[in-house]
Design brief:
homodimer; alpha/beta; 6-stranded parallel β-sheet; 17% strand
């Protein structure tokens, strides 16, 4: 147990921020990318490997873990850190987003969400209080309030209703979190879709309620990148400087760079893991589709200068073969390569902010993406 | 390149043998278990992990590699060792067994086998000469003659025909192998099904032809273990002491123990890898089915005294969860656990033979399997 939750803002470069989060399970350097460990495992990765990519923190999904193996069971087994053999910081989402996207037969009202498990049909109720209770049982270092994420494009009425619901749930979540062991953190979530005024109206009362950190939710759900960035620009000035800012579910390497430049500190996304399982590598040279036949006879490793052994020790021809043959090792290697690249990018952003040369770093990075390596 | 192929018989305990095979890519301690790397990868394992389990040699499948990515391509990429980043010994099978079991529309005659690829329908011909050529292109340290493996139970006429065909192909394989780089080895294969006389009649001329090692094929194809062991007892005395003896496609831990006691030196089998992917662990305590609900709350690791991190660092409850959730990490951990256990068993057998206490070791091992750990 390293200590209680706290955030230290160490440097700015324009609106970009360099910081450190302290948690009961150690330090998180920000800007930070959190690999997604949906079912208490980052697919295809050993915990030691995840750490070796440079990840300080992983995300786990409350929805999946509440259905299987169940939060009470994980608590009895000593908590999620021990269960998945990851002794470092963990953030859990509230379950709300995935109830909305995965569970059939859901009903949302002021009280919470009722839904049927997509695994076995059992009925569950998820209220703000239960979402917090589950996350306390899991032992999350950082928990998220229950919110309603409205899919875009959405009618103004739906966005307003979602925003109002989420604000009410924020207050109830905060009260419920008073039961949490000392040192743990709860983040509030700003909703409001692509409506700038609604975003600001959501952020204001949330900040007044008071959370350890603030997330911007309901973005990267189908809108153009430009809309997402404008919403960040609207919300960021309303958020307190001395709390971390988490952009949920984002994104591509380019999304990360642009959101960091606009003052966001934390990110999670399934892209590096999911795309890795489907043959797509993220790299200094931009995205590389290993399924493409042009790699079949290519002796070169994916990136000879990478800190990731998977990017150095195997030829592109072999990665192509494994991907075409649908071999587990292909998914394993590309997942490791992608998570390493994401962490390398975040480390580069942190260094650049610290040296106040972010604009140069971003320009160089994007130029290299465009140049490729063929 | 460690040297040319040779075999050194170092000790006997009854009919059991302790030995060492030298190959161009290093040493193989016998009795040896060879993990199966069908498509140039042992499913779910990093090459370094395979080595860390104690494996000296892996097997790769000529049938799969001839279809994809193709032996000429692998040769142009520097050979199979480099392709799969496994710089240690490799044995390749001849492709015959899998043509018979996987390819539709096959035709077998004196000349060879014609078949349709199960991947894209392309027609291929596999002759004894082409099977050897492919294995040379792959760069196998140990190549196998093309043979016909007749499924049991079989009519006497089919067994005789299969035996005759395999003997003719053995001679042609040997001639073709004169083109191989110095130091590589070719093994002949004894066929004859469950017919003791046919087995001896197959082994005699094969030994007269002269190979670097001898395999016993066509066993563990549906017959009772007792029949398999009787066939080994018939064949082993006919085989020269100064050559390794390879029992193809075998087997369970019990099969290995019994076959080692009867003088077999090398084994390959998909059981530890395939069963690992399906939730079954092999262990000192016998087989353990991690899908079973009794593991759901079990804090214990699979085997706290194992040399394998996967067996020590994760609870049975977590392995159960991963297996139920069909997570890659479950398959990865159980594959590593199983391959480690197989290698631990082989190492135990080698030590016991060297100390001439094999009978005691076998009795202790089987007692522990029976006792379990519940």
């Amino acid at each position: 147990m390293a200590g209680s939750f706290s955030f230290h803002l160490m440097a700015n470069d324009g609106t970009a921020r360099l910081g450190e989060i302290e948690t009961p399970h150690g330090r998180v350097r920000t800007p930070a990318f959190m690999p997604v460990g949906t079912q208490a495992t980052v697919k295809g990765m050993y915990p030691g490997q995840i750490r070796a990519t440079g990840a300080d923190i992983v995300l786990a999904n409350t929805y999946h873990l509440m259905l299987r193996p169940g939060p009470e069971r994980i608590a009895a087994l000593g908590g999620l850190h021990r269960f998945m053999n990851w002794p470092h910081p963990i953030l859990t989402d509230s379950g709300g987003f995935q109830v909305m996207s995965l569970a059939p037969l859901r009903r949302i009202d002021e009280q919470g969400v009722t839904f049927r498990s997509h695994l076995d049909g059992t009925m569950y109720e998820l209220t703000p209080e239960r979402a917090v209770e589950i996350q306390i049982l899991l032992g999350a270092d950082i928990a998220m309030q229950l919110d309603e994420c409205v899919k875009l494009p959405a009618a103004p009425g739906d966005l307003q209703r979602g925003g109002r619901l989420s604000l009410g749930w924020a207050e109830r979540s905060k009260r419920a979190f008073e039961q949490a062991p000392a040192g743990r953190a709860l983040f509030g979530i700003v909703q409001g879709g692509d409506d700038a005024a609604l975003r600001r109206h959501s952020a204001g009362p949330l900040v007044a309620t008071g959370f350890d950190g603030y997330a911007v939710g309901g973005l990267a759900v189908g809108e153009p990148q430009e809309v997402m960035l404008r919403m960040i620009e609207e919300v960021a000035p309303v958020l307190p400087d001395n709390c971390p800012r988490y952009l949920m579910g984002v994104g591509t390497p380019d999304d990360l760079v642009e959101a960091v430049a606009r003052g966001m500190d934390m990110f999670d996304c399934v892209l590096p893991t999911r795309n890795g399982r489907h043959g797509l590598a993220f790299s200094r040279f931009g995205p590389i589709n290993l399924k493409n036949a042009r790699h079949a006879d290519d002796q070169r490793p994916l990136d000879a200068t990478s800190a990731c052994p998977a990017a150095r020790d195997f030829s592109r021809a072999y990665l192509h073969h494994l991907t075409k043959a649908n071999e587990m090792l292909g998914a394993m290697l590309l997942t490791a390569i992608n998570l390493s690249y994401y962490q390398e990018l975040m480390a580069g952003l942190r260094t650049a902010i610290g040296e106040r040369r972010l604009a140069d770093f971003v320009a160089e990075t994007k130029a290299q993406w465009r140049a490729g390596d063929e």
